[in-house]
Amino acid sequence: MRFRVTAAIVLAAVPALTAGCAASTSSAPSARVHHYERDGVSFDYPSRWKHRDWCWEGTTVTPLVVLTTTSAAPACDPTRTPWFPPETLGRNGLSVWWDLGGAPGLRWSPTVRNSPPTRIDGQPARTAVLTPHSRQWSITGCSGTGGTLAMITEVAASAADNYYDMTACVRGPHFTANERAVRRMLASVRFRRSS
């Protein structure tokens, strides 16, 4: 299987984000940064973001974690909570969702298929920035949050047909701080590789 990362966020320039992801190295977490590690992926994220590990596994997609700037991370009930999680972003809010899954023969989803290639932690990646007027907006999950921009980033891992998705939805009007935070998080991504 192959791993893919999907992210939804505001970016002024996709090349700036993806270049930073390919070239940056992660520094040791500080008191202002938390470290996440699960199912072969690890990354650092701002300590001000609320964190909730997800509570159920799917057959093709398994949600991993929700990171959000809302007052509390959404609750997870294994019998009733959908993916993408229900939450409403406030002014200048952000919500980031990570999941993993598999789909035989999937190379890139339609959302990023025509985006320029780049790399994250040495793995092939693609990024697309979407707005509510974009043709693919409805599949981002951001419309239900009040988000006004989405960035979808897919990162292929070493195993064929598996993927990680990271979706980050951002609500404006000021996007710069959240854009930088997501860019730093993507730059810190590391994949555990089998030996």
Q: What is the CATH domain class?
A: Mainly Beta
Task: Give the CA-CA distance, first to last residue.
Answer: 16 Å
* Secondary-structure arrangement, i.e. CATH architecture: Sandwich
Helical percentage: 10-25%
Name the descriptors.
195 residues; mainly beta; Jelly Rolls; seven-stranded antiparallel beta sheet; three-stranded antiparallel beta sheet; 2 helices; 10 strands; disordered N terminus
What is the secondary structure topology, with strand pairs?
Blueprint (H helix, E strand, L loop, with lengths): L13 H10 L9 E6 L2 E6 L3 E4 L7 E8 L25 E9 L14 E4 L2 E8 L18 E8 L5 E9 L5 H13 L1 E2 L4
Antiparallel strand pairs: 1-2, 2-10, 3-4, 4-5, 5-9, 6-7, 7-8, 8-9
Helix pairs in contact: 1-2
Structure description:
The chain has 195 residues and is mainly beta. It has one domain (14-23, 38-172): Jelly Rolls (Sandwich), CATH 2.60.120. The chain contains two helices and ten strands; from the N terminus they run αβββββββββαβ. A seven-stranded antiparallel sheet has the order 3-4-5-9-8-7-6, with helices on one face. It starts with 13 loop residues before the first helix and ends with a strand. The relative contact order is 0.30.
